[in-house]
């Protein structure tokens, strides 16, 4: 492309063919050598990466840097703009819990959160955990969170300092601010205190990065003496642990993407064997919340595809005792629920828009909290205490900064506590947000959320950034995004395609974008692009498509299927070597993924599903547009070699001269840089690429 001038030669890695035969089909992988032999150990110690692989990744980084060298000033400008929209000394509104109120804050110039508490009704802040201080001297640092004991004397906190998502747990004396000697390693980052604060439960990750064992740790004893509470025998399931608001039970749960199972430990007897609530049944999900003398259970059992809420006695929680309370309504997807002394609350989605519904537990009367914009986002924060009438929720739209409300469930009074500040200024009246529907080939209507300046010409001349994900039932909210303004203010239309594979239009929308139906996710995204072109929001070749992780698989698939539709592709930690990964049951996420994509090891038919779209396997002689791929060296979810191999094969087959770029963060994993401003540097690179390929750099 003419916007990329005087580029040095791109890295051309050696080919070392490795063949694999499954179901009578032989595939040859020329770049399998990029996968480190000691990849599991490397998650703990990145320095052991084989020198040849490291040299190749560094050569790719140098090539990317050379290709983007003329945007360095633009990247700094974008970074400055995005940072200017962040209130640097921001603080959350503390949440009341017993004698204290707990919150988090950032300090001016700080990268990491500080956790604090105040007296319940206000007063001087006590800093419980200073994230910036803990991160000193570390190239990567991420706090997993902090949880306090019932007596508020101790806190569990965790950190990951490699980017590999193996978290170390520490116990802090909240009165002194000092950590105890206990060191609990290789956890998933969480922990649940026993009510007396003398012990806690946690999930340990195995050598394949699967949380498969639940342990009970007594504070003051070595981790080697921790008691094994539960071990998940099926590698397709992940185990986890949670607590109840009333501290009466510990939840031990096992799940994959479509099936769940819960066991309970009474906190009155911490050494009791976990008791099974309802045995796992393929495709049946359930979650529980305690409500005094009952449990409320959210489930899709009995054909309740969009979920219903059941109630069961606290002392007899088995499935035989479940009674329907909130019936299933097709098209009304219940997403989550919580219970308080006098109210039951749930977050639902109807007609692609969220609502919060409150039910009076005594009278059964229900009412909803909803808003009137075409597209918006709601977040249900709830409360930390059971005996309350007040919950919290957040609201935003693509034009409206986030607002935090306290809501009285009894009086229906809504109190605005905080509006997201944009220090550099933001006038919602300067922008337009819309929701349009793109017709898919089979007649389905794909929602597309739009943001643009009201003075942007809608005559096909505007460039567009089209974002998509479309997997695991995850819905991408139409929420306020300060970073996107840097593109919108430069004439872009910013769009989100709510494609099948998410739950944007109910559970069926998810099912129609997974397994055998996965191709719908890709054709939906292309249909969204075509609709934006037809309606003159943009034009063919003026769309930069962006997606990450499973959304990166989306990018790889659509650029194989319709390369000339797009003027550029941004693929962050992209799951592009899908077939090889799902064929390898030693990789961290593979067995649980079989219910999302299919099991190509056991089934020739399911092998065929994945082989039909797997981006790496379907690279061909196409006129690929400019592509920017981003990877993390210690990423356990999408391993670095997936984008590295993909980029090599793309360069080999592309019939255009457009550059294919790879940037690997050598100090981070799946989420990229850990600091709030460090992350902005990565976003600035992505947006500079979008502006460059659209001729606006």
Describe the fold and architecture.
This protein is α+β, with helices and mostly antiparallel strands. Among the domains are: 18-83 and 427-693, Alpha/Beta hydrolase fold, catalytic domain (Rossmann fold); 348-421, no CATH class. Helices cover 19% and strands 33% of the residues. The chain has an 8-stranded mixed beta sheet with strand order 32-33-35-34-36-37-38-39, sandwiched between helices. Strands 7, 8, 9, 10 and 11 form a 5-stranded antiparallel beta sheet that branches. It has a 4-stranded antiparallel beta sheet with strand order 3-4-5-6. β17 (249-255) and β18 (260-266) form a beta hairpin. α3 (72-84) crosses α13 (676-693). The longest helix is centred in the last third of the chain and has 18 residues, at 676-693. It is globular. The chain starts with 17 loop residues before the first strand and ends with a helix.
State the gist of this model.
The chain is 19% helix and 33% strand. It is an alpha+beta fold and 697 residues long.
Topology, element by element:
Layout: E1 18-22, E2 25-29, H1 39-44, H2 51-67, H3 72-84, E3 95-97, E4 100-105, E5 114-119, E6 126-130, H4 131-134, E7 142-148, E8 154-160, E9 167-173, E10 178-179, E11 184-187, E12 192-193, E13 199-205, E14 211-218, E15 227-231, E16 238-243, E17 249-255, E18 260-266, E19 275-276, E20 286-290, E21 294-299, E22 308-313, E23 323-326, E24 332-339, E25 343-350, E26 353-360, E27 366-369, E28 377-382, E29 390-396, E30 403-408, E31 414-419, E32 431-439, E33 445-453, E34 464-468, H5 485-488, E35 493-497, H6 507-511, H7 519-534, E36 543-548, H8 550-561, E37 566-572, H9 578-582, H10 590-597, H11 604-611, E38 627-632, H12 641-653, E39 660-665, H13 676-693
Parallel strand pairs: 34-35, 34-36, 36-37, 37-38, 38-39
Antiparallel strand pairs: 1-2, 3-4, 4-5, 5-6, 7-8, 8-9, 9-10, 9-11, 12-13, 13-14, 14-15, 16-17, 17-18, 18-19, 20-21, 21-22, 22-23, 24-25, 25-26, 26-27, 28-29, 29-30, 30-31, 32-33, 33-35
Helix pairs in contact: 3-13, 7-8
